[in-house]
Amino acid sequence: MARRLPDGRLQFLGRLDDQVKIRGNRVELAEVEEALHAQAGVGEAVVLASETETEGERQLLAFIVPDGQQTPTETELRHGMLETLPDYMAPSAILQLDALPLNANGKTDKQALLQRYRQLTGDPDNDAQESTPESTYASQTERDIADAWARVLEHRRFGRTDRFFDVGGHSLLAARLMQDIRERLSVQVWIRDLFEHDTVASLALLLDERRGNDQPQSSLDRERIHPLREDASLPDDLEFSAWQATDSLARPRHILLTGVTGFVGAHLLTDLLATTDAHIHCPVRARSGADPWRRLDEILVRYGITLSKADRDRVELYRADLSEPGLGLTEMHYDELAEVVDVIYHSASAVNFIQPYSYMKRDNVQGLLELLRFAAARRTKPLMLLSTISVYSWGHLHTGKRVMYEDDDIDQNLDAVITDIGYVRSKWVMEKMADQAAQRGLPLMTFRLGYATYHSTREYVRITSGGGVWYKPAWRIVVFRTWKRCERG
Length: 489
Known about the structure:
InterPro entries: ACP-like_sf (IPR036736), AMP-bd_C (IPR025110), AMP-bd_C_sf (IPR045851), FAR_NAD-bd (IPR013120), NAD(P)-bd_dom_sf (IPR036291), PP-bd_ACP (IPR009081), Thioester_reductase-like_dom (IPR010080). This is Linear gramicidin synthase subunit D. Pfam families: AMP-binding_C, NAD_binding_4, PP-binding. Keywords: Phosphopantetheine, Phosphoprotein. Residues 121-141 are annotated as: Disordered. The protein is of the alpha/beta class and 489 residues long. The chain has three domains: 10-121, GMP Synthetase, Chain A, domain 3, CATH 3.30.300; 140-219, ACP-like (Non-ribosomal Peptide Synthetase Peptidyl Carrier Protein, Chain A), CATH 1.10.1200.10; 248-484, NAD(P)-binding Rossmann-like Domain (Rossmann fold). 37% of the residues lie in helices and 14% in strands. It has 17 helices and 13 strands. It has helices at residues 29-37, 74-81, 110-121, 140-153, 171-185, 191-196, 200-212, 225-231, 263-275, 292-302, 309-313, 331-340, 357-376, 396-399, 414-417, 422-439, 468-480, and strands spanning 2-4, 10-12, 19-22, 25-28, 42-51, 58-66, 93-96, 254-258, 279-284, 315-319, 343-346, 383-388, 444-449. The strands form four sheets. A six-stranded parallel sheet has the order 10-9-8-11-12-13, sandwiched between helices. A three-stranded mixed sheet has the order 5-6-7, with helices on both faces. Helix 2 (74-81) links the parallel strand 6 (58-66) and strand 7 (93-96). Helix 4 (140-153) packs across helix 5 (171-185) and helix 4 crosses helix 7 (200-212). 29% of the residues are buried. Residues 125-134 have low confidence and may be disordered.
């Protein structure tokens, strides 16, 4: 909502809807409330957005009144909501009340709710906030870690065995927490430690063990080389029959496309529809009971992509999970696709610049292994693997090479990869797996992408990745069709 001032300027007054931005993502509060209402034991629910102590950041707060039949815990509610919502839409706190406060008009008094939240959480050192009998910690290290949690979470509603990500934590807070612990406890910690030891008790054991180790502590988070090589080894029973080189690759009738709900995958879908006559079969990770078409349509609208009815008739979506046996498909769908698919385009990938390799392994490494099994089922199917130039990592610092060629063995970059982020480590393992499959007879083409930023003909710029400092100016140029002239000095 805005108004025009007497001098012709527009004054922005605010939004008329309940849409807010959380960690860079647009969120409809009504959608979060709907997910809360769907949980067992919830009678009434209200979701609000509140400023945090960190400037410019907001969080979701939920207030519920139990229905009187059962009283769900905060963890149970959050897990239930994540069945239908992405993690950034999960409230940082879910408070239970006897009744929702009302204003003079009989409507929910949102200011009173926020005041109630501040009363409970305004002082992270307030022992009254602790809502669990496990508030007695087993060691000084546990107490120190709990204090650090309270500082970044801005509450103490957790015990020594509660998971950080179940009590309002997320990846951005994880980075802040590790910095806090590193400075106050004088011990080296990495974000990977929190993902793998996500309770106060387990993290304290790790840090006590690390401090008791006489070995010098490295400032680099190194993955051990042996596990990466081991993960990259294909099982002996994975074999590929001889591929019959036919025109099915140039003129495929059926294509399996993964990652269609991603930025690259969605645009790859439109290109395959435009350049082939094939039917496109797309496994989609849709949450329990959710319609995969609804999820894809939301993505297409976001990217400015429109599919004609004829195009939609050529696309078949399947609820699936690539990391599960049989790709998470029904046995009937798996067998049918294994029989008819001519070529596989693998665009699916978990992309996260904070989560450790142990978290990325399931989606990326195990997902590719199951897809390789599918490529070998019934008859061999060529694989088009979308990878990343990041598999080179900072290899030049170890090899001394200034130029890398696409057919160079990426083993030479391993010393750099083991100190890189979990995403890069997982992509290195994926390429090694695919190369082994090719040696066993799988027709393979690997495409290494750089930053996927924007489409040349659509007014959408992807600004949520690590290169946002470059994407935002590009977005302004595309949308406003203007740019600032830069003079050379």
